[in-house]
Structure to design on (243 residues):
């Protein structure tokens, strides 16, 4: 009995250390993203999180019965998803498509982290993510930055799925999941602004677009989306490391 108790204690300590490391890396990434050196160091992650965001808009458009045409990712890490929408769509559909960008990475990140609960789930998630990057680039991406960075990232993830050991695979999918989940805060105040410049053109923010559809102020939707993303991250970490 003493031996098993000791093993359980070790496993619990290991789980706590892993969660702590992921939280530290996540918070460290957020701080680094706001420094010139950090932005350069994390550039592949920046492009990947932009992809998560814009694919969130695109998939939301598809789910709302609209046509996702293409997405653009610019060298500065910003991006835009272009969809053909019906004039008969309603305000709820507009709000869901707008919310797809901020909540999409959180959903994807939670799914990636949750998959790490088992080795089989980890390997499947890595393979699916790598393949999805390659396929989506061929189908939807129409910018040079995306055409270069996304396939290279997809191939790197597939290499991890095929060649890395179990611990490396689990850590990789958890790190990717955390980066996706926190990416909504990678740009200072993104959820709490009315708009900005993307690709040289003035654009309203996603939360401002939700405000136009559902009336409540953009900062309210920023709070709602922030709470939703935090809840998804918390749930996925709890699920992945649950005994």
């Amino acid at each position: 009995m003493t031996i098993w108790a000791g093993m359980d204690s070790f496993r619990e300590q290991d789980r706590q250390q892993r969660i702590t490391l992921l939280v530290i890396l996540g918070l460290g990434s957020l701080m680094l993203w706001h420094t010139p050196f950090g932005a350069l160091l994390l550039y592949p992650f920046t492009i990947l999180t932009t992809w998560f965001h814009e694919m969130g808009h695109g998939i939301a458009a598809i789910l709302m019965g609209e046509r996702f045409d293409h997405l653009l990712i610019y060298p500065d890490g910003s991006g835009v998803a272009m969809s053909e929408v019906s004039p008969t769509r309603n305000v709820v559909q507009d709000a869901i498509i707008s919310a797809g960008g901020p909540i999409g990475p959180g959903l994807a990140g939670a799914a990636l982290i949750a998959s790490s609960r088992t080795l089989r789930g980890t390997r499947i998630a890595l393979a699916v993510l790598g393949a999805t990057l390659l396929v989506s680039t061929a189908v939807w991406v129409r910018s040079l930055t995306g055409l270069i960075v996304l396939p290279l990232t997809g191939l790197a993830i597939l290499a991890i799925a095929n060649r890395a050991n179990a611990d490396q695979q689990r850590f990789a999918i958890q790190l990717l999941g955390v980066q996706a989940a926190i990416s909504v805060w990678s740009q200072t105040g993104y959820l709490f602004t009315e708009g900005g410049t993307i690709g040289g053109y003035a654009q309203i923010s996603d939360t401002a677009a939700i405000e136009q559809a559902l009336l409540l102020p953009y900062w309210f939707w920023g709070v709602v989306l922030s709470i939703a993303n935090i809840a998804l991250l918390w749930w996925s970490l709890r699920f992945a490391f649950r005994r």
User: Anything to note?
Assistant: Residues 34-240 form one domain.
